[in-house]
Amino acid sequence: MSESGNRAICGKESQSLPLPPCEPIDFSSDLVKALFFAVSELQTGRQKAPSTPAPYHTSRFDELVTSIRTARKLIAENRFRIALQPIVCLGDNQLHHYEALARFNGGDCQSSFIGFLEKADIIHEFDRRMVNKVIQHISRMSAEPVPIAVNLSSTSLSNESIIRDIEGAVRQDSSLGMKLIIELTETVRISDFAHLNNNLQRLRQLGVKTCIDDFGSGSTSFQSLTDLKVDIVKLDGNYLHKIDFGDDRDGFLSSVIKRCQAMGARIVAEKIETGEQARKMKAMGVDLGQGYFFGRPEMLTCDNG
Q1: Is the N or the C terminus of the chain less surrounded, counting Cβ atoms within 10 Å?
Q2: What is the pLDDT along the chain (305 residues), one digit of tens a residue?
Q3: Any stretches that span the bilayer, and where are they (predicted)?
Q4: Rounded CA gap, 132 and 155, in Å?
Q5: Number of folded domains in the chain?
Q6: Which domain holds residue 221?
Q7: Under DSSP, is residue 294 helix (H, G, I), strand (E, B) or coil?
Q8: Residue 30 lies in a domain
Q9: In 10 A of CB 161, how many CB atoms?
Q10: Considering only CA atoms, which of 286, 247, 287, 296 is closest in space to residue 94?
Q11: Is 219 within a domain?
Q12: CATH number reported for the structural domain that contains residue 243 in this entry
């Protein structure tokens, strides 16, 4: 995406859409969160059970409390920025929408940090700030912007307060529904598909498009395609690069594409890096492409935090 494209995204600002303020952070729960985090590490084998429990619990527990409080402070102060990466139609290479990506510490993408937030059970705090920031950006644009997709965890999309915030913003500005895409990330196992699907349909009824992110990553399953009605399915790029694009020997990709087509969902292939990959994905029936071949993520120059 060129510099001129970035300026086009930012455009001429208009009055931003007022949103409910994010809830103040109550740090009193950090001790409990750190305790559950430490127990989880021991259960999964990431940390060995100590021969002398007290030193372990003192050092590791204190470290976790400090890390959780640091992360929550970063979130509360909005100390992250947004980068946008283009997603294009493989049929004509025209821009379809952007994906909003969080950037910390000078522009690095820290998936490990997001993973930490999920394990510490504070991902909903970050997701609330992230979606609010994207909505504020969309609402500031006087011209009709290209739609922007934002990632939300299944935990956040099961959170009634976050759903109501999004519903409230769309009801204040009905055009927002056509400009916002919600991508469901499934790095945390979904416990209640029916409740989650109900929330997704509430957003879709307001015009908001929904997407399953990183399908095929190992965290997702065909139950997601069966039990969740969405508009877009994004195929995991790491999986795509492990298969033979010309053969698809295990038939997984072909079966996913057929399933998506049957349910009327558009398909995005991630991490496309060459024209040959783009052509092969198009030939297999994939609608949209994302990757360095089409454009790298670029920081929003008008994102003031």
Answers
A1: C
A2: 444 344 446 655 544 555 555 555 555 566 556 655 665 655 565 554 444 444 445 677 788 888 888 888 999 999 999 999 999 999 999 999 999 999 987 555 567 888 888 888 899 999 999 999 999 999 887 666 799 999 999 999 999 999 999 999 999 998 899 999 999 987 667 889 999 999 999 999 999 999 999 887 655 667 888 899 999 999 988 767 766 555 665 577 888 899 999 999 999 999 999 999 999 899 989 999 999 999 999 998 776 55
A3: none
A4: 17
A5: 1
A6: 3-21+81-299
A7: coil
A8: no
A9: 11
A10: 287
A11: yes
A12: 3.20.20.450
> What token pair was written down for 2?
């060129």
Cβ within 8 Å of residue 256, ≥6 positions away: 215, 216, 225, 233, 235, 267
Q: Is residue 35 part of a domain?
A: no
Strand partners, 101: 83
Question: Is residue 260 a part of any domain in this protein?
Answer: yes
Tokens of 230: 């969405």
